[in-house]
Amino acid sequence: MSELLELGEHISLKMPQAVNSFSVKLGELELLANRDEIIPLMHFLHDDIRCQFINITDLGGVDYPSRDMRFEVVYHLLSPVCNQRIRIKISTDEETLVPSIVKVFPGADWYEREAYDMYGILFANHPDLRRLLTDYGFDGYPLRKDFPVSGYVELRYDEEQKRVVYEPVKLTQEFRSFDNLSPWDGTDYVLPGDEKAKSEAT
After folding, report:
1. By the 8 A CB rule, do 68 and 93 touch?
2. Segment holding 118, helix H or strand E
3. What would the CATH number be for the domain defined by 2-129?
4. What are the extents of the domains in the chain?
5. CB 42, CB 60: distance < 8 Å
6. Of the N and C termini of the chain, which has fewer Cβ atoms inside 10 Å?
7. DSSP 48
8. In the chain, at which residue ranges do the beta strands (DSSP E only) sit?
9. pLDDT of 101-128, one tens digit each?
10. Cα separation of 107 and 197, whole Å?
11. Would you report the helix, strand and coil content of the chain in percent, each value rounded to 5?
């Protein structure tokens, strides 16, 4: 752990404009970084002799709807030379562009596209920022916390039209309201179909 803290101090001293804070969590060094300085920071982490984080393992989004900057972009890098991992977090919102790191880590290409497709996070200067997992006409961003569980539309293949058609979602049952009463205590009202059992008990 002391080795990771020393590495965090080294990075924050060399890149004070980019690193807001650092800590060790779950056995990995975690940096909270400045969004506008993410490219210089990534270059440093890639090239510095004490870092050599030459592999991008993952890039993902996290949604916190109650925050002004509702999204976090989380980068996971690996240094095979130093046998270390690092996590970098930056914050953004629905409209603020995040600089793309594809020129530093070409492997971030599809990760950034996925974050755009699932969360609507926008990456500046990405070579091909378009949907990756959903259809091109898809409405909304499925991993946002305010996206409805049922979605907005459903699709099916129409035999008459010989093509895929989009239709508004139709729920097959009415919305259910749960009373959260204990099943051992029973309900304080008569369940549908249980009228006879209740009358015999009294």
Report:
1. yes
2. helix 108-119
3. 3.30.460.80
4. 2-129
5. no
6. C
7. -
8. 19-25, 28-33, 55-63, 71-79, 84-92, 98-99, 123-124, 153-158, 163-168
9. 999 999 999 999 999 999 999 999 999 9
10. 64
11. 20, 30, 50
